[in-house]
Each structure stands twice: as C-alpha cells, then as structure tokens.
Write a structure and sequence with these properties.
Structural class: alpha+beta
Distance between the termini: 84 Å
Radius of gyration: 26 Å
Oligomer: single chain
Strand content: 35-45%
Number of strands: 13
Order of helices and strands: HEEEEEEEEEEEEE
Length: about 190
C-alpha cells in the first residue's frame, strides 16, 4: 500500500512539474545573470575611493574623444573611453572640484573666485590656465601636459610642480618625483 501512495504522488508531481521547472530555471538564470552583472561592474568598473568624497556626485563615464562634456561653468572635458569623471552637484556654485580616474583633455574657463581643481587618486591639479591633458589610472604614473595657460601639480607629500604652455611632466607616485617630458603627443 505505501508503494502505491508513493507512486501516486510521484505521478501527480510529474503532471505539474514542467511549469514549475521552467519557472525555477528562469529564476536561477535571472539570479545568475544579476550576480554576474554586479560582479563584472565591481571588478571592471569600480569607483575609486577618492572619488566618493563629495556626495551627491554627477558621474560621466565612457565618452568618446569626439564628444566633449560641457560643465556648468562653460569648461569642456574630453574623456578617453573607460575613464571615470565626477563632480559635485554644487559645481560652479561653491567650488569647481572634479575627480578623475583615467584620461582627459580639458579646456577650462578661468574664474579667479572659484579655482578649478582636478583631484586624482594621490594628486591634485590647480588649473591656473585653460587647456591641458592629464592621465591618472592604476599605474604608478601621472602624466600632465599643458597646451595653453599654466597648472600647479601637487605631489603626495606636498611638493609642487608648476607647468606653463607647452610643458609636460610625468609624476612617479611611488617615488613622489616629477620628471620633465620633452616631446609628447596626445
């Protein structure tokens, strides 16, 4: 008698099973896809800790070289694909601080009352002029080139390097040293 009850229950499960199986498979696929999406974004596109300082932030990522981002002050930023660029929502009201991880070229509108500051992971650039290129990423090197105007690049321990139009430097984060670059093409 018990064997027949078991067989009967197993037969009932077989009649309902296809629908439940498809729902279960769909749920598992959905969960796995979501987990992979979260894992991929946390591994391949993490926001560096130094970029989380000011909240709320406006984030601009994955723009091509030909598409400039125009900021509220009229400054224009060209980002290399994969670069991360953020600025505070109070930008151009209380400050003009931006955060960069990656590569950008910038044409900055001068404002003596609100200096334009670029915060990198270990450095800060005070923009005293208008046009410049900067690359700061996971490597131990920051590269800065001034096309027009001047910049003040600050090192980890507070040492500074002022650059004029046409000058370029490489900053070694591990040695906290600046090195002039004679010829550089962007």
């Amino acid at each position: 008698p018990k064997a027949s009850v078991y067989t009967l229950n197993r037969d009932k499960l077989k009649t309902r099973n296809p629908v439940l199986q498809w729902i279960s498979i769909a749920a598992v696929v959905f969960i796995v896809a979501g987990a992979l999406f979260l894992f991929r974004n946390s591994i391949f596109s993490p926001v560096p800790d130094f970029m989380r300082d000011a909240v709320p932030m406006v984030s601009i990522e994955d723009r091509s070289d030909s598409e400039p981002v125009e900021l509220e002050d009229g400054s224009r930023i060209w980002l290399k694909p994969g670069s991360q660029f953020r600025y505070d929502q109070d930008f151009n009201k209380e400050n003009r601080i931006v955060y960069l991880h990656g590569e950008m070229f910038a044409h900055v509108v001068f404002d003596a009352d609100l200096p334009f500051l670029v915060r990198l992971e270990d450095n800060e650039i005070s923009v005293l002029g208008t046009s410049f290129y900067v690359r700061s990423d996971k490597s131990n090197r920051v590269v800065v080139q001034v096309q027009e105007g001047s910049l003040l690049v600050k090192g980890i321990n507070g040492n500074e390097q002022k650059l004029q139009s046409g000058q370029a430097i490489s900053y070694d984060k591990t040695k906290d040293t600046f090195q002039s670059i004679e010829e550089m093409t962007i």
